[in-house]
Design brief:
Helix content is 38%, strand content 0%. The chain is mainly alpha-helical. The protein has one domain (3-187): Cytochrome Bc1 Complex, Chain D, domain 2 (Orthogonal Bundle), CATH 1.10.760. The longest helix has 19 residues, at 3-21. It is globular. It starts with a helix and ends in a 26-residue tail after the last helix. Bound molecules: heme C. The site of heme C has 25 residues, from helix 4, helix 5 and helix 6. This is Cytochrome c-L. Residues 55-149 form the Cytochrome c domain. Keywords: Electron transport, Heme, Iron, Metal-binding, Methanol utilization, Periplasm, Signal, Transport.
């Protein structure tokens, strides 16, 4: 085979290979307790191919952080799935507080780490969430947890430096965001 043909064949094979991998993550996602790779196939079909999930699986970045249009739905998901154990403002209850700079598992200060803990669970009552939330909803719930952060913005390592410069630690009285069931298109929904 000529060299150019070889290169072309190789390119085609690589392309077929990456297509076959489909929705697999470019980042390595592991269970917070066992360190084993997460099996993303366990997540519901729904909510797998939103722009936010695709971006997250490529980069580990959650584009829902501080996205105003998505925060009402994010709030609603947190109230229905998490606040019973973590408290209304994520101040802590049966489960630890999620609104300050202290983490039992330090990796939770990154969005990749937080996603891994939510998807695969941790110890005791913190079960895996892939049965209850789809991946798009996990990213939304994460953005609400980040919104509830009440400590020094310097500790908000999940924000871009631009977002950090304007971020205000959570204050329940300033600009309250009412929870809402609606899922706008920019947040992975089909409605506007
Ligand atoms: C049935 C109670 C319960 C529910 C519901 C629950 N959690 Fe937890 N969560 C816990 C407990 C208990 C722990 C402590 C586990 C540990 O230390 O391993 C925990 C730990 C965590 C941690 C690790 C915190 C740290 O300091 O590193 C995160 C993140 C978390 N939960 C997020 C969530 C989110 C998001 C939801 C909702 C989608 C949720 N949890 C729902 C009980 C719960």
């Amino acid at each position: 085979m000529k060299k150019t043909t070889l290169i072309k064949t190789a390119t085609v094979l690589v392309t077929i290979g990456s297509l076959a991998l489909g929705a697999r993550a470019a980042i390595m996602l592991t269970n917070t307790i066992t360190g084993q790779p997460l099996d993303l196939a366990e997540a519901p079909e729904e909510g797998r191919d939103t722009e936010a999930v695709k971006t997250f699986l490529q980069t580990g970045v959650n584009i829902y952080n501080e996205k105003p249009v998505c925060l009402p739905k994010a709030h609603e998901l947190f109230l229905s799935m998490c606040s019973g154990c973590h408290g209304h403002y994520a101040e802590g209850k049966i489960g630890p507080g999620l609104n300050d700079a202290y983490w039992t598992y330090p990796k939770n200060e990154t969005d990749q780490g937080l996603f891994e803990t939510i998807f695969g669970g941790a110890n005791g009552q913190m079960g895996p969430m892939y049965g209850a939330l789809n991946m798009n909803e996990m990213l939304l719930v994460m953005s609400w947890i980040r919104h509830l952060y009440k400590d020094d913005p310097k500790g908000a390592v999940w924000l871009t430096s631009e977002q950090r410069s304007t971020f205000k630690p959570f204050d329940e009285h300033a600009n309250p965001i009412e929870p809402s069931d609606a899922l706008p298109a920019q947040c992975g929904g089909t409605a506007d």
